[in-house]
Amino acid sequence: MLVNDNLKKNFKYKTDGLQLLSKIENDSIATAFFDPQYRGILDKLKYGNEGESRGKARCDLIQMSEEIIVQFVSELSRVIKNSGHLFLWIDKFHLCSNFLTWFLNTKFNLVDLIVWDKDKIGMGYRSRRKSEYLAVFQKSPVRAKDCWTLHNIPDVWTEKISKEYKNHPHSKPIELQKQLILATTKPGDIILDPAAGGFSVLTACQQLEDRYFIGGDILYGEN
Q1: Per-residue pLDDT of the chain (223 residues; tens, 9 = 90+)
Q2: Distances (CA, A) of 214 to 6, 18, 51, 150
Q3: Burial 166-181 (b: 16+ CB within 10 A, else e)
Q4: ∠ CA 115-116-119 to the nearest 5 degrees?
């Protein structure tokens, strides 16, 4: 198995995320982000706009099955250090479903939930969606002291994506991710994103000192 030193840091790999994870050694990653590409709420509500211009980019993304997501979670459990963190992006549909079944037979423990207020009204037949959710998992053993060093991060975070960083159908908030990286890592640590999309986690790492990114995306990376 290849070790982390054999992988380029701060590089946008164009690769299948599971292949990338297979090249990472056990217990070597301090913090990881995972934004699985699932249809979820789109299939539930059947908006029917995937062929239109505003839905085309979203429709073109390669979807992950539940089985594939479970494989990702299992591999993330293997590569993250003991007491390290995984930040999982989920929508309301999956939050209200039993997404914790993805974590059976892993060493992950759900320890917190952060609501991202996108400051933008989205879809919805009833209430209109304005937020996404970030489930916070910690690999056993669960402990907070020395593992989470910032204590000013609110559990509802408002951040609008600027045009500068709106480079993907599911762009994520740079500043929130920066604060979470600072809270859960130390200088020299590696931050992993195996389904990086628009590489917002890479951007967050680049804006910090001595944090190193490893990650890739099957569509949006570089060869």
Answers
A1: 345 667 999 999 999 999 999 999 999 999 999 999 875 555 554 545 444 444 544 445 567 888 999 999 999 999 999 999 999 999 888 888 889 999 999 999 999 999 999 988 887 778 888 999 999 999 999 999 889 999 999 999 999 988 766 665 678 999 999 999 999 999 999 999 999 989 999 999 999 989 999 999 998 878 7
A2: 11, 13, 33, 23
A3: eebbebbbbebbbbbb
A4: 130
Q: Identify the CA nearest to 196 among candidates 13, 7, 46.
A: 13
- Would you state the structure tokens that stand for residue 166, as one six-digit string? 């709106």
- Could you tell me if 37 and 61 are in contact, meaning their C-beta atoms sit under 8 angstroms apart? yes
Q: How many residues make up the chain in this entry?
A: 223
The radius of gyration computed from the CA coordinates of the chain, to the nearest angstrom, equals 17
Distance CA 218, CA 20 (A): 10
> Tokens 């301090």 identify what position?
30
Q: What are phi and psi of 82, to 5 degrees?
A: -55, 135
- What pTM, to 2 d.p., does this model score? 0.88
Alpha carbon 118 to its chain's center: 16
Closest CA to 160 of 123, 126, 121: 121
The rounded distance, in Å, linking the Cα atoms of 184 and 191 is 10
Of 159, 194, 156, 199, residue with least CA distance to 31 = 194
Q: How far apart (Å, rounded) are the C-alpha atoms in residues 92 and 136?
A: 15
